[in-house]
Amino acid sequence: MTSAQNAIFKALSDPTRRAIFEGLCRGGSQSVVSVTQAAGISQPAVSKHLGILKNAGLVSDQPQGRQTFYSPNVGALSQLTDWTTEMTAFWNARFDALDDLLKRMDQ
Amino acid sequence: MTSAQNAIFKALSDPTRRAIFEGLCRGGSQSVVSVTQAAGISQPAVSKHLGILKNAGLVSDQPQGRQTFYSPNVGALSQLTDWTTEMTAFWNARFDALDDLLKRMDQ
DNA sequence: CAGTTTCATAACCGATTGGCTATGCGTTAT
DNA sequence: ATAACGCATAGCCAATCGGTTATGAAACTG
User: Fold this and answer.
1) Distance (Å, whole) CA A24 – CA A61
2) Which residue ranges does UniProt annotate as crossing the membrane (chains A, B) (predicted)?
3) Mutate which of A13, A30, A85 to test chain B, going by most B C-beta atoms within 10 A?
4) Contact (Cβ atoms closer than 8 angstroms) between residue B72 and residue A87
5) N or C terminus: fewer CB in 10 A for chain B?
């Protein structure tokens, strides 16, 4: 669990990778050449980034003849929101406990 | 904007930093010594991590005599959820457009 | 069949990272 | 006043990272 979570956080920590992912969300499924042109870096670098995103479950690849199309897995982003809501819940629980304490002290 | 966003993603990409942040959310404001004991690494390493979290706006420090207490800024996590909802919106917009197209073709 | 396109992998390189120890400075305790 | 504590900074090091060029394997094209 945590390992998949870690892969997602790591994958999205690089601005180039976030830009690639955003490009796929905006433009839909795209070939490596297409992603490369948008990214402004070499094709091998893009392939490496796509590999990391794929490994994290953030994108899927659909080979089609000699080109491979990549599409985003927006569902994987739930790992992110799940973590943030969990952290917020932990933090809020402390205030709830404090509220209870203050109420009890009030009586 | 994007620079602050980048700092947050980078800060949370390290599992040790996420653990420290989670510890602060769970346990509330804590001194550096307390965080260090929980983290299981050296105090200077913890100070560096806390500095990065603070720089990203994820924690705040309250100096108090010779010790400094750190508390989480859960509000900063909205940057994360904002980005994910934006990506999801981009992706869904493509399906909405496809829906429209199909509906128009149906008529 | 020969040539081109598409992509992934390998090998390399400079920069960054995450850890450590050593140290210094301010604060509290004796 | 001296010692001990709490924290941050500096300097170091191995490991990882993000980019590059070179190369090769498939898949199309003519």
Assistant:
1) 12
2) none
3) A13
4) yes
5) C
> How long a stretch of residues is chain B?
107
B5 burial level (CB within 10 Å; 0-12, 13-18, 19+)? middle
A91's enclosing H/E stretch is helix A78-106
What is the DSSP secondary-structure string of B46-98?
HHHHHHHHHHTTSEEEEEETTEEEEEE-GGGGHHHHHHHHHHHHHHHHHHHHH
Q: Where are the domains of chain B?
A: 2-106
Please state which CATH class domain B2-106 belongs to: mainly alpha
B window 39-78, beta carbon within 8 A of A: 72, 74, 77
CB A8 within 8 A of CB A57: yes
Distance from CA of A95 to the nearest CA of B (A): 10
**What sign does the CA torsion over A93, A98, A101, A103 have?**
negative
In Å, the largest CA–CA distance within chain B is 75
Q: Which residues 6+ apart lie within 8 Å of A65 measured at CB?
A: none
pLDDT at B105: 74
The chain-wide mean pLDDT, for chain B, equals 93
* CB proximity list for B93: less than 8 A, separation 6 or greater: none
Summarised one tens digit per residue, pLDDT across range A7-57 is 999 999 999 999 999 999 999 999 999 999 999 999 999 999 999 999 999
